[in-house]
Structures are given as structure tokens and as C-alpha cells.
Amino acid sequence: MVALFRKTDHKTLAVWAMAYVERVLPYLKGIYPADQRPRGALEILQAWIDTEVFMMAVIRQATIAS
Questions:
Q1: DSSP string, 9-31
Q2: pTM of the full predicted structure?
Q3: Which tens digit of pLDDT belongs to each residue from 43-53?
């Protein structure tokens, strides 16, 4: 599996991650209904997929959001 990940480009891995997390997000919402961080992280990832622009300030803000 690791070899497959190493051969796959970052954008493809990001799209895969989005698809996976979208499936489990409803379960997280059920356990932590007020936590907006998972949805926010997905929005940031989607923006990167769309633009391929990595903005560290946005990433940092998302990691410390409460």
C-alpha cells in the first residue's frame, strides 16, 4: 500500500481522501455535532484540489480552530 501511495500524485491522493472522509463525516457529526473542524478541513482541501495553491496561513488557522 505504501508503494502505491508513493507512486500516486498528491492531487489524486487528495481526491481519494475527500471521497473517503465524505463517507465518514456523518458519523463524526453524530458524535460531535458542534465540531466544524472536519468540514472546514474538507473545504480547505477542496480549495487546494481546485487551485493547487497551498496557503500555510489558512492551514495553520484551520488546525487551531475551535
A1: -HHHHHHHHHHHHHHHHHHHHHH
A2: 0.74
A3: 888 998 999 88
